[in-house]
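During the reporting period the student researcher (J.K.) took over the structure-prediction task from the postdoctoral fellow and processed the backlog of single-chain submissions. One of the processed entries is reproduced below for the supervisory committee.
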Amino acid sequence: MVPCLIHEDFQYGEVDGKVYTYCSEVCKWTAFRLPFANEYNGRSTPAMGKFSGKREWESLYHGWTLDACLKDMGFIRNDGKTLVPQPHLHTDPAKMWTLDHVKGLPIVSPLETFRGLSPPSVKPRGHLSQRL
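J.K. obtained the following C-alpha cells:
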C-alpha cells in the first residue's frame, strides 16, 4: 500500500527482508499475519493470511514504460495497438487512444523509492511498530 491519503496513520515494516508500507496500523497488523495462525482452537487453518501472486503491482512494473506495462497486463485490444481503457466514450477509431499515446511514459514506484531511503534514526510511530 502507498499511504497517500492517511498520512497520520502511515506505517511501515519489514517482511522477508523487504520494507513495505501500510495505510494504517490495522493494515500492517494484517500483513504481518498476526491475526492469522496455522492453527486456531486446535483446528488447522492452512489458508488463513496467505498472500498469493504479486504483493504489489507498482514494484513489479517499477522502471517500465506505460506502453510495455499495458501490453504485459493484456490491456490492448485485438488490433494490437488500441488501449482497452479509454479516457472518453467515443467509439470512433480515430479518437481512440493507442500505445503511441502512452509510449515511453515511465512508471516509478513510490514504494521502491521509499525502500531506497536510508533507515530513519527514529522508530516509526504507533504501538504496533514498537512491538514488532
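The committee noted the following: Residues 127-132 have pLDDT under 50 and may be disordered.
J.K. will present the remaining backlog at the next meeting.
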